[in-house]
Specification:
The chain has 65 residues and is mainly alpha-helical. The chain has 2 helices and no strands. The chain has helices at residues 4-35, 39-63.
């Protein structure tokens, strides 16, 4: 299915990518707290809108098949 070289490349790439993500997150951790405080409210509102629309569609199909 995959050659030995492809598997080694995938493993090295995955490890390097994970390390880079952790490093970048640790650098931005302080700035994220400063610039994005209160962003959970936007997430909660978006989830509310999504579930409200989902409910409306389900009710529409229930009453008007």
């Amino acid at each position: 299915m995959f050659s030995r070289g492809q598997l080694i490349f995938a493993l090295v790439f995955a490890i390097t990518f994970i390390i880079a993500i952790i490093w970048a997150y640790s650098k931005d951790k302080v700035d994220n707290k400063k610039f994005f405080k209160g962003s959970y409210k936007i997430l909660l509102f978006s989830l509310f809108v999504f579930f409200a629309l989902f409910g409306i569609v389900k009710l529409k199909h229930l009453f008007f098949p």
